[in-house]
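Write out the 3D structure for:
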Amino acid sequence: MKQDFGRISIAELLAERGELMHMHLVNEDADVNRYMDRPRVQKPSFALCGFLEGLNPHLLHVIGKTGLHYLGAQTENQRREAINAMFDLSLIAIVITCGLAPPEEMVQAARKTRTPLITTDMETTAFMTDMMLYLTRRLAPRMYQHGVYIDVFGLGVLITGASGIGKSEIALELITRGHRFIADDMVELSRPGPDVLVGKSPDALRYHMEIRGLGILNIRDLFGAAALTDTKRVGLVVEVVPWEKLSGEERVLTEESTIEMHEVQVAKAIIPIRPGRSLAVLVEVAARNHLLKQRGVDSSKEFVHALQERIRQGQA
């Protein structure tokens, strides 16, 4: 599994969120190729006083009403000195909120250092909250997992197994049974939270599936948009294995089996494959069974508990 860490340039940020968050670039000649790789936003309050310790140039910096009022109360020399000291650090970008105009000294420093200076009419708290939520998703660590990803009964099911074992064929049958296709062959996984794993298709492979003997199929063209979904939180991993490789101990499991993916524990089910078995139905049952477990209903544990009770009473 290959892992990448996300990053986003100021140019991409403005293209993706500029209109939605009412952001406007003040200095058009700014270096908008500067990028962020951390989902944090900082208010440079102490830096406006000339104290630069703790100011992280790799973060997006936000200045609101209080910061601008403080600068306005300083002398022209004090204001220019504090602003120049900040901009000399090659900050990624500075955003002025509340629809306020940046002081002229800041505009000059931005042009001199080619630092992107952005304005927005959003309130400071709302802007910082929305921006951090967006950056958390956008910059979440990513990895790529070989497999097929399907939405089964609203549960994200990642089907894994050896190449050529029939994962795509299982997915195709699930689609014909009304479930929704997400990705085939390669699944892009991201971790936006400490215990959340989200899967999607890489852009180059989106909507497509390879079936041996038929070639590359466009699922959207074949089954329509209703047979697709873009992203889904991973809820269950189903590993398809040859029948002869399943050990006796794995036939009846009383403990929940899990697998660690991207530092997240995900429930796992193992399904052996052999002629005559309807694997799509088994995947559906595995998904239903997992959903029941989430509601506190565990058939295996209930059976073992009932059997132990009969043994205790001498009935078995």
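The chain has two domains: 7-138, 142-296.
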